[in-house]
């Protein structure tokens, strides 16, 4: 048998070398496993952390006239009223300011674009990251507007005996029109436009047969829609009830919210029903974002509601009893944010309460700035970026 210079058999040396390698791999695996466990514990504790107070990172004075409203716009806010709209970043800095005169402004945002329209009037103002991007004057009165991430605007318009839905480019060019008759098609209730500006859903209330019928219609203004009459690629009727709200959850998923539940559709090109969800209890509020959809239901118990959330497969991910009498509730990322005039609750998607607090001033808007602990808070006095802290100050 061959031996090395230290008279050790070569075979023994090879066996010993293999044992060292195995031990090294075992130690590495243990270390990796420990890191994964430690990282998981850290992320779990971070995700489920409960905050007791906050500190102000930056702030600006807020001047408020009657009728001021807010929308989440980027990491900041869109502030709009009868006199104009203002974009404010997460640190309270003014990004742009646009003036107009409207009696009853209504607004929508999508990525860098924002649209403000005079509900009941004929004026539409379009804004992008730099400010005013276009203006539109409609022939008929405006019920609702929505804007896409490309700046395409959908406007639901009405006049006596008829109504129409028009799509406009940023420069005011009319791209498409859906004309309907009240007697034949019913009364328009709601519309929703996809992020790419190519798909549209409408909700109508019809009584042409003497019975109440809700109608949801689906349109495609892309290449696929060219093969369909009036670009209508689908429709659903709801006997005896209406669909007060239709909404694109993301560019390829949409919901039709009925009086007793909602229908979730896959809608890349053609609508395909994912799941129909029906509630036995009355719906008090609906909420949705790009990953979830749900509702707050009346329980019949004074002071209590039931919050139910579903993922985009139609699977229930949260069912929780609420004892907070909110005035606003919505989904932002993986959080449910709810508040009344001065108090708020921020809840994680697993039902854990992240933040429960009563402020010294009113809450006009509250939206996340990042995924951990920072938010932008608007009141009648100030707009501030705050960071949640574990101990109350």
Summed up:
This protein has helices at residues 10-47, 182-185, and strands spanning 53-61, 69-73, 76-80, 84-88, 94-99, 105-110, 113-118, 123-128, 131-137, 141-147, 153-159, 162-168, 174-181, 187-193, 199-206, 213-220, 232-239, 245-250, 253-258, 261-266, 272-278, 283-288, 292-298, 305-311, 316-322, 328-332, 335-339, 343-348, 353-358, 365-368, 374-378, 382-389. The protein has 393 residues and is mainly beta.
Helix proportion of residues, in percent? 10-25%
Alpha carbon gap, first and last residue: 78 Å
Q: Percent of residues in beta strands?
A: over 45%
Query: What is the general shape?
Result: globular
Low-confidence stretches: 39-44
Taking all residues together, what is the mean pLDDT?
Answer: 89
Biggest sheet features? 4 strands, antiparallel
By secondary-structure content and strand pairing, the structural class works out as: mainly beta
Radius of gyration: 27 Å
Please provide the count of β strands: 32
Number of helices: 2
Oligomeric form of this entry?
single chain
Spatial order of the strands forming the largest sheet: 1-32-31-30
């Amino acid at each position: 048998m061959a031996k090395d210079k230290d008279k050790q058999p070569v075979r023994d040396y090879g066996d010993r070398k293999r044992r060292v390698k195995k031990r090294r791999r075992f130690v590495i695996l243990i270390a990796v496993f420990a890191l994964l466990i430690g990282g998981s514990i850290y992320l779990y504790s971070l995700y489920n952390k409960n905050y007791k107070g906050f500190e102000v990172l930056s702030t600006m004075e807020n001047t408020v006239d009657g009728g001021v409203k807010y929308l989440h716009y980027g990491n900041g806010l869109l502030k709009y009223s009868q006199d104009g709209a203002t974009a404010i970043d997460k640190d309270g800095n003014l990004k742009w300011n646009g003036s107009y005169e409207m009696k009853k402004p209504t607004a929508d945002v999508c990525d860098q674009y924002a649209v403000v329209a005079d509900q009941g009037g004929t004026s539409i103002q379009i804004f992008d990251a730099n400010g005013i991007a276009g203006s539109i004057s409609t022939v008929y009165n405006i019920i609702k507007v929505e804007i896409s991430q490309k700046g395409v605007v959908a406007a639901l318009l009405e006049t006596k005996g008829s109504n129409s839905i028009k799509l406009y480019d940023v420069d005011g060019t009319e791209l498409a029109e859906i004309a309907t008759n009240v007697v034949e098609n019913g009364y328009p209730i709601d519309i929703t436009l996809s992020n790419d500006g190519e798909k549209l859903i409408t909700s109508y209330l019809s009584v042409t047969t003497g019975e109440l019928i809700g109608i949801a219609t689906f349109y495609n203004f892309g290449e696929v829609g060219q093969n369909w009459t009036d670009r209508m690629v689908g429709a659903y009727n709801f006997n005896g009830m209406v669909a007060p709200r239709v909404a694109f959850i993301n560019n390829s998923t949409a919901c039709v919210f009925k009086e007793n539940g909602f229908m979730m559709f896959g809608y890349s090109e053609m609508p395909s029903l994912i799941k129909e969800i029906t509630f036995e209890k009355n719906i008090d509020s609906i909420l949705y974002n790009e990953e979830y959809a749900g509702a707050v239901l009346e329980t019949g118990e004074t002071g209590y509601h039931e919050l139910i959330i579903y993922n985009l497969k139609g699977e229930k991910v949260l069912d929780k009893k609420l004892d907070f009498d909110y005035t606003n509730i919505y989904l932002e990322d993986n959080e449910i944010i709810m508040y009344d005039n001065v108090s708020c609750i921020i809840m994680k998607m697993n039902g854990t309460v992240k933040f429960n607090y009563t402020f010294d001033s009113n809450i006009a808007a509250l939206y996340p700035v990042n995924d951990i602990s920072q938010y932008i808070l608007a009141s009648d006095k100030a707009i501030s970026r705050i960071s949640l802290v574990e101990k109350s100050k």
